[in-house]
Structure formats: structure tokens, C-alpha cells
Structure prediction request, 253 residues.
Amino acid sequence: MTDRDTNSDWKEIAQKDPYWGVLSVDGFQGVALNKEMSDKFFATGATYVSSLLGLINKYLTDVPISGRAMDFGCGVGRLAIPLAAHFKEVVGVDIAEGMLELARSNAIKAGASNIKLLQSDDKLSQVTGQFDLVNSFIVLQHIPPERGIRLIRDLIERTRVGGVCSLQLTYARERRFLTHEAPRASYYRRSGNALTDLVASDSQHPTGTITMFDYDLNEVFAVLSEYGGHPILSLPTRDDGHLGVHFVFRRAR
Prediction:
């Protein structure tokens, strides 16, 4: 099976279902939301940012409101817009130009003139400088770990020493999702607790499919240990059968 081109998936999602792609909740489908659903959508972002900053201020450090924040995988601006009320500058990055266009429009409507929006790539090549807060929530789970681990390291390195990094990812899923992996191969063999694909296939789900990837937490913690101080907050997440963890920590070195 060939590597999944998740960048193309998200460019397609940005054109057809941008809000639902960011937050897969009934009522957020389509390319535009009515005022009621738009208010509900962005209220979830405000709630998240308030909770995150509360955790940081309580357990880690005072957040400098004169500083800079980055939201990696900013989508349509759900988190970047409320972050803009707490930081002098917010940089939102996303792989899909369609998402960035909507984020620009939404930021203007919200009066958030201190948001800078950039197209992302695996090296964050358009992003300059360091940040007091780097955040990525319900984004890395859509990026294959062989790329995502490198991005995690790069995101931490974009955080200034003493600043805070907030990263969420998934590491396991319910067994019912095995059926979604049927196109990988025609057969499989069980060896104890391991499943081995047999007769691999190049068949894939159509472009625009939202894919989920599980990370090896040993590998993630190995990266965090290179940079993180104490404590590292580990907050469990669970979304429709996907188990995840939200790490919030100060960069110590």
C-alpha cells in the first residue's frame, strides 16, 4: 500500500467540508455555517483556549500576553481567533489554502487583526522566530507518525526556552475500526497479538477521506524528554473511539 497523501486529503476537505473537517460534529457540515452553528463552533474554541491557559497558569507558568503564539493546523481559525485575545501576535499555519482563506475571513469578522496566517509544510519553512506558546490540538492525529514525530520536534524547537508547548495526538483506537483498514491487503495472519497483512493492495480510500494515525507513546516521550522540564501535564482525550493524550509542558532546554 502506498503512503497516504494526507495533504491532498485536507485540501479537498477544505473545499467541501472545512468546519466539519476541523470538528466532526453534526451541524458543522458544508462550506458555510449559519450564525447559530457558527457561534457554537467558535464557542468550542474559546472554551478550549480558556481551559488551556488556565492549566498553564495554574501548573506551569504565567502566560505573557505580550508574547507570540502559534496554532499548528489552525484550520478555519477556531483556536487562533480566541488565542488572539491573549497574545500580541498569533501565527496560524495550515496545509490547506482553503482553510487559510476561511480563517482570514473569520478573523476579520471577529476583529482579530493580530493573526498572521501561513501555509504549512513538514519543515514549517514559512514560520520565523520563536513563540511563548505553540499549540496543536486534534491535528497531529491526522498526520502519519513518520512525519508527525519530526514535526513534534520542530514545533518544540519553535517554542522559546521557558515557553509552553501544547500537543495532542492519538495512540490507540477501538477494534471496530479494523474494517476501515480492509483496503490495505486481501488477507491477514494473526501471530499472537500481532496482525500481519498478506497480499498487499494499492487500493486506498478516496481523496478527501479523514484518516487517523496512532503514535507510539514511547517515541513521543523520548522526544519530549529532550526538551521538556517538570511537570509534563498528560491529559487523556477520547473522541469517538480514538484514545489520545494532550501534553502541555514548558520547554526547559
About this structure: The first helix runs from residue 6 to 16. The chain has a mean pLDDT of 94. Helices lie at 6-16, 18-22, 35-59, 80-83, 97-110, 145-157, 217-227. DSSP finds seven helices and nine strands in the chain.
